[in-house]
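Write out structure tokens for Ribonuclease H-like protein.
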Amino acid sequence: RSPTVKNIQKLLLRIGSATSGKKDVLLSRLQKDMRISKIPDSDNWTKRTRILSIDMGIKNLAFCVADVRLSSEESSATTMEIRAWRRLDVVEEVSKRSGIKKREFAKEGTGEDEERPDPYAPSSLSDTAYTLLKRSLLTYAPDIILIERQRWRSSGGSAIQQWTVRVNTLEGMLWAILTALRTECRITTRREDFKKYNYRIFGVDPKRVGGFWLGDRGKVEGVKRRSKKEGAEEVGLGPESETEDGVGLEGGGKAGGKLSRGKAEKKAKIWLLRSWLDREPPSTALSKHTKPSPDEEEVPAAQAYISFSFFHHAEATRQTLLYATDAASERSKRTNIRKGDVKKVDDITDCFLQAAAWVAWEENRRAIY
């Protein structure tokens, strides 16, 4: 029998494709996207694919580097070996990697010397973006680079925030530099350059990632705040876009009030990731099939089974996320943490879930196809 629109949309959701449109459009998209692999040589189980996942920001950019091996006849588990996972201030990171003292910039609205460089002017930001890629992110030699796709407006507002413009400008610069480096490497005769810059770049819609992992849980209008006596202290949640001082909003309001929809979704993602990482071994640990309702066809479950392992520095980030969501009485058992990231675990969560979603989408595509 002919598949229903609802089931076609479910299949599209499970391979990371758009779900809007009429039935004929959805069917055409499904047929096309099912033939496109998100991970090169995904049928070669001996090949390791390295993914660099970036959650955009300037004062709060987060990235995750994972070596991925997909399931096969020899191994039923898909594995992600997390080699690096951290949050950084882009300007500070570039200064450190360049081995130079952080430049003094004019502070906005202070009337300081206008001759001082603006760190967010194209002339400064382009140099920052290039150095960030060459001396930090591309040193991991990724095969796939995932960049969180930015919006121009938040919460349907008509105004475009200044920090939104800055982060979007950085996003565009990263794309331009990565594309230029890759294009140049394809015409070079140097083997080391070809291997280093022969990556694939993809923009990832954060709404698609959230909808995939959270499902109906992502449609919350708000959640009641818990008092500190009820469990973990309030998790630090960043705003929809960065504030000028780069500090994440830490909830605010009284216990018993409600979080906004955006913050409720962020909190749901943080607790989902905690549920994966607070077990041994860390994994998504979800069944491979969902039980359909009587009027629906059985289709593979949205979440593929993925197991995780962590290198030393990435393990510190894992412990930081667990520490941030622990009850206060349980925090003393965790010593290997990044204290500067405790209030900004939403950024490190987003880049991790983005990488895991990309892997799950490919596993689901292979299972369905």
